Amino acid sequence: MGAATPGFRVYFRDMRRLSLSAIAAAVAAALGLSAAPALAKTPPSHSSPTGAAKATVRLYVRDTFFVHHRTIDVARRPIVLQGWVSHFEPHQKVTLRVRVGHHKRTLRLKLRPNKGGRTGRFGATITAPTPGILHLKVMHAASPRLSALHTSRAIDIISEATSDPLYAALVQQRLLALHFYMPQSGVWDLQTELAIEAYHRLLGRGTSSTLDPATLADLLAGRGRFIPRFPHNGRHAEGDLSLQLIALIDGSKVEDIYPISSGKPSTPTILGNYRIYERTPGFLPDGMYYSDFFIRGYAIHGYDPAPNYPASHGCMRLPISDAISAYDWLALGDWVDVYGTPNESI
User: Fold this and answer.
1) Does residue 53 belong to any structural domain of this protein?
2) Cα–Cα nearest to 346, from 255, 266, 243, 265
3) What's the pLDDT tens digit per position in 198-231?
4) Do the strands 316-318 and 298-302 form a parallel or antiparallel pair, or are they unpaired?
5) What global pTM score does this model have?
6) Residue 255: which residues within 8 A CB-CB, separation 6 or more?
7) Are the beta carbons of 261 and 309 closer than 8 angstroms?
8) DSSP labels for 76-134?
9) 10 and 113, same domain (yes or no)
10) Residue 193: which of 31, 309, 322 has the closest Cα?
11) Is the domain of 256 the same as that of 310?
């Protein structure tokens, strides 16, 4: 159920019944995906009325990211809040105060019992309208039945400017999580744009190296996967000419994805399953750079240019800056599986 508010969008959640251990386990699992960590519990206030149940409160955030030891997100993206109270009393509410810049909102959230009825929970989903520090504060005034509670935390809502190091680091982190080759320089650079271009190809959205709002939303949600077709080939490379991508794969685990330029219509890239039979580091006289030959003169290699369309004499060209990384991963005898039709879906 949504609540229309100036600036903030707020959604009240029908939360599952969760024990503290279940919440902690979920947060621990999320940390592996760079989600924000939980805030430590706050001690109960000593100003509670005599006879009121003593309790503590914890506030968790989901669907945010952890970059450079900071919890961050971008504006206009839903953030899920989940709260846990160590003692449940019926008919109690907590106050949630939300503020970013001049945008403010105060909510009253009903406590609901977790399984067993001893602990309680509350929750909401908010969307920050603008960059800035998003301040979250949860309070419960002391009542005859429940002690005073309070906890707070802050989230950096960052701009989507490529000059912002936090934004660059976030984009690079999420591209790397989807297995695109991405040295995490922390600045918006050529490698970032090559990986964004490869991500557009994977989604079938052309070859742009800029992040439009829809593609950014998909990236932050972790959408898009390169699906291996030959997991039985162990450590191998798969060239998907339909997507103009090559993936380095260990069994069924994708390690790195790169954009390629395959053979132009008059000199198409050969399809089939082959093994690397010769490897040549450095430059060859014709400009091929760090080459892995898999049949006759066909190779995976760096070349300048490696445009965003099929242009080679039959090889799978990599951008020069990607070539050494791919060469270092591959080995003599590795399978190279080539399939698809150029320009089929990009």
Assistant:
1) yes
2) 243
3) 999 999 999 999 999 999 999 999 999 999 999 9
4) parallel
5) 0.84
6) 179, 247, 248, 249, 329
7) yes
8) T-EEEEEEEESS--TT-EEEEEEEETTEEEEEEEE-EE-TTSSSEEEEEEEE-SSSEEE
9) yes
10) 322
11) yes
